[in-house]
From TrEMBL:
Organism: Umbra pygmaea (Eastern mudminnow)
Cofactor(s) needed: Mo-molybdopterin; heme b
Name this polypeptide is given: Sulfite oxidase
Cellular component terms (Gene Ontology): mitochondrial intermembrane space
UniProt enzyme class: oxidoreductase
Localization, UniProt: Mitochondrion intermembrane space
Entry keywords, A to Z: Heme, Iron, Metal-binding, Mitochondrion, Molybdenum, Oxidoreductase
Segment of the intact protein contained: 184 to 568 of 569
EC number: 1.8.3.1
Length: 385
């Protein structure tokens, strides 16, 4: 069993698939922490977790025009390059897929609303490593992508791979890291020990774990996950007509928010007088969430939630530099129970600083792979007299 050496996981995780291991935390635990503890951070593996000896580990850098391939040891990555720490949210393209599946069946793991988490990541900037490997800005006329290959392999020896645009990889404020720490400790095995790429603002799939190789290239990664997966399509496209070449790979994600509390079906006593609603909100590409609107009546009337950008009770983090809002915001609203209503449909929607907002329903954004599911999140609860 190639999975026999997989690490032990936290028992509270909700498992979507055991081999490979895919799991998300219960929503109400997720919004208890601004920085998600590593053991409950969602886990999305396509393959067995590789066992990597840190002494033997080498990162290969290839494809820099006119320059010989180079290798770096873990020690070199840690000591030769300035150490940067970035707080960034990772979200799987399939987060909230189960809501899409309810409209019409889609292919993929049935994620709830918690295939998203937030951590602090520490490592070398990819930009600095590319510079050390001989890359120069003028080479960006000959190369457009940076490919990443994982050390995890399937039975045929094919490894997980993905790529990002070169301009994101090389940009000074793109904050792309070759991270060797998560939340102040060595990366856990499930999250890419000893080194993973962290591409802030970009879909989880490009944040390659157990990083073995970086290739600067004209082409995107030829990996299945870059070419024939993680793309969006029209609701009209089905498995007979889909042409994966016709759509761009998902990179920056759209605006997202969801309600983590209360849970669907919760019973409230009218005597309690009020209801507290909690959730998260995040947008891709470094766009900052500027507002979250909450409705208790299915979207007829709205109230503005309070945003939280830091651990509760601590001084909130200063506003990020525009375009570099990589971390989510947690939010909360306490409001009187609407008089008379027996059932409440609680809804949330977020707005980012480009004034992007979420679509109100799922059918117009339904797609066969169930990705990019970001409609208004709706939770029904009951009030008893
Ligand atoms: N990297 C490797 N090497 N293998 C993988 O299976 N999964 C990707 C990405 N990087 C994956 C990978 C996907 S689809 C997601 S959503 C994120 O890792 C999940 O990161 P996490 O498990 O740290 O939450
Ligand atoms: Mo993912």
């Amino acid at each position: 069993d190639p999975y026999s050496t997989d690490p032990v996981r936290h028992p509270a995780l909700r498992v979507n698939s055991l081999k490979p291991f895919n799991a998300e935390p219960p929503p109400e635990i997720l919004s208890d922490h601004y920085i998600t503890p590593s053991d409950i951070f969602f886990k999305r593996n396509h393959l067995p977790v590789p066992q990597v000896d840190p002494e033997v580990y080498r990162l290969h850098v290839d494809g820099v025009p006119g320059v010989e391939p180079l290798v770096f040891s873990l020690e070199e990555l840690k000591t030769r390059f300035p150490k940067h720490t970035v707080t960034a949210t990772l979200q799987c393209a399939g987060n909230r897929r189960s809501e899409m599946n309810r409209v019409k069946p889609v292919k993929g793991l049935s994620w709830g609303i918690a295939a998203i988490s937030n951590a602090t990541w520490t490592g070398a900037k990819l930009r600095d490593v590319l510079l050390a490997a001989g890359f120069r800005p003028e080479m960006s006329e000959q190369a457009f992508h940076v490919q990443f290959e994982g050390l995890d392999r399937d039975v045929t020896g094919t490894s997980y791979g993905a790529s990002i645009p070169l301009n994101k990889a090389f940009s000074e404020d793109g904050d792309v890291l070759l991270a060797y720490q998560m939340n102040g400790e060595d990366l856990p095995a499930d999250h890419g020990y000893p080194v993973r790429v962290v591409v802030p603002g970009t879909v989880g799939a490009r944040n390659v774990k157990w990083l073995g190789k970086i290739t600067v290239s004209k082409e995107e990664s030829s990996s299945h996950w870059q070419q024939n997966d993680y793309k969006g399509f029209s609701p009209a496209t089905d498995w007979d007509t889909v042409d994966f070449k016709s759509a761009p790979s998902i990179q920056e994600l759209p605006i997202q928010s969801a309600i983590t509390q209360p849970a669907e079906g919760t019973l409230f006593d009218r005597g309690a007088g009020e209801v507290t609603v909690k959730g998260y909100a995040w947008s891709g590409g470094g766009r900052e969430v500027v507002r979250v609107d909450v409705s208790l009546d299915g979207g007829q009337s709205w109230q503005v939630a309070q945003l939280q950008s830091g651990e509760k009770g601590h001084v909130p983090a200063p506003s990020p530099q525009p375009g570099r809002a990589w971390a989510w915001k947690l939010w909360e609203l306490t409001a009187p129970l609407p008089p008379g209503a027996q059932e409440l449909e609680i809804v949330c929607k977020a707005v980012d600083n480009s004034y992007n907002t979420q679509p109100d329903t799922v059918p117009p954004i339904w797609n066969l792979r169930g990705v990019l599911s970001n409609a208004w999140h709706r939770v029904k609860v009951t009030v008893k007299d």
